[in-house]
């Protein structure tokens, strides 16, 4: 079975070369949907033999959907530029184990790294994501942030994606802050309305869950830091939603 690799990018010159090299181990083509990067992302992608489509950012889900018509094959491996298949996931695809059963999407476990350190606490592992699907019956949602694959018959498999998303806590905080704004706007557009206690309540619950119930407490300063960052994201998401409500 032939497979299309699909990646959305913006200023990913650090990762895109390695990402394409990894995809070409299991894919017959690689399609890049780029949001007019200002670095060498497009140049590197073309040098690696990828097809580059440029499109102003539409949101996480719509941007991925925009790339689907450019994919020649039904099976889509849709990774981010900082994600790579672990060996068990490569074997799962190369041995065509995905054809066993009538499934149209597969959820892989994600190993999230801070630098080169695996963060396997505070709810960050196992973090399941559907990154492999058949576009005939499954598709990305329309969500602006943290889209999901809408599927008729999904299966979770115990193989892994390696996610090297951040080199520092500063980067995690900056990204979470950006996501919180997008998520708040999405909730607002969906008609979600909250009271003034929601940001504090959800921020507190997120910290307790990550630090105590998800084993952050056993991982020193990093466990405390990740739990606080998760709390920050939950608080800011609803604080920004509350601000949108007041503007309305």
UniProtKB/TrEMBL annotation:
Annotated InterPro entries: Glyco_trans_2-like, Nucleotide-diphossugar_trans
Keywords recorded for this protein, A-Z: Transferase
Name of one Pfam family that matches: Glycos_transf_2
Any GO MF annotation of the entry: transferase activity
Residue ranges of domain Glycosyltransferase 2-like in the record: 6-113
Protein family per UniProt: Belongs to the glycosyltransferase 2 family. WaaE/KdtX subfamily.
PANTHER family: GLYCOSYLTRANSFERASE (PTHR43630:SF2), POLY-BETA-1,6-N-ACETYL-D-GLUCOSAMINE SYNTHASE (PTHR43630)
Protein name, as recorded: Glycosyltransferase family 2 protein
Organism the protein comes from: Flavobacterium cupreum
UniProt lineage: Bacteria, Pseudomonadati, Bacteroidota, Flavobacteriia, Flavobacteriales
